[in-house]
Design a protein that fits this description.
mainly beta; outer membrane lipoprotein receptor (LolB), chain A; 10-stranded antiparallel β-sheet; 3-stranded antiparallel β-sheet; 4 helices; 13 strands; 43% strand; globular
């Protein structure tokens, strides 16, 4: 972990405090255009997500009316019933997205993979900067909304299932994350600008509770319409 990663992680509570916990749980209220585009409207409008902090695992419960919960483990995705019996399962789920464009519909397992990959990354950020194989470097300043932020380029290892290996994090003068950039490879390399805000402190860790994701142009500017995904996060707990 270099000095850039340490400064950002310290601003969010520090790695020592973070490593006291192995799970984060939160209630989600979600909206935006993506779910209907992918033929999965309403499934995850209201749900509770749990993610691991020490391994790549996430679960959404309930998973609409389709399953009691999902089970995301990176290289495997499954939907489970109330007795934890497997209803549907897919190994190497990323391969099922080959040839997809933004408008290509998803099946339930693809939705579960996307949602698990997303929330595992979101709730573990910025502490993923201390993960083995993750590297980051300063990419200069970025001016937006009348503020000057610092842009940090991040490279994730192939061992992690993330939207794209090359991403970016923008932090403000307090080193709090304000925006994430990535290309959603499993949705036709769709470029996203993901804004976060309304921070709260839970068990000594700083979490944003408001997330809004918009299309991103090649020059890095975000387009205000359409709102691709909205996520409001409540009742965060660590254990």
């Amino acid at each position: 972990m270099n000095s850039i990663a340490k400064a950002i992680i310290d601003a969010h509570g520090g790695i020592t405090q973070w490593r006291k916990f192995t799970k984060v749980q939160a209630d989600l209220s979600q909206g935006g255009a993506l779910w209907a585009i992918k033929s999965q409207p309403g499934v995850l409008d209201t749900t509770t997500v749990t993610v691991s902090t020490d391994r790549q695992w996430a679960s959404h419960e309930p998973f609409g009316t389709l399953a009691s919960r999902s089970d995301f483990m990176g290289r495997r995705i499954a939907l489970l019933d109330a007795a934890n019996q497997v209803l549907q399962e897919r190994m190497q789920p990323r391969t099922s997205f080959e040839g997809h464009k933004l408008e290509t519909p998803w099946d339930p397992l693809q939705l579960a993979f996307f949602a698990g990959c997303a929330m595992w990354t979101y709730l573990n950020t910025p502490f993923l900067l201390a993960w083995d194989g993750v590297v980051c470097e300063d990419a200069g300043t970025w001016t937006e909304r009348g503020e000057t932020w610092r842009k940090i380029e991040v490279r994730y290892p192939d061992s992690l299932e993330v939207f794209s290996n090359a991403q970016a994090i923008y932090v403000d003068s307090d080193n709090l994350v304000r925006r994430l950039d990535y290309d959603v490879e499993i949705a036709g390399n769709t470029a996203g600008a993901h804004y976060v805000g309304d921070y709260i402190t839970v068990s000594g860790i700083r979490f944003p509770t408001r997330r809004r994701i918009y299309p991103r142009l090649p020059d890095g500017q975000a387009i205000p319409e359409p709102l691709v995904v909205s996520i409001d996060v409540n009742n965060i707990t660590l254990s």
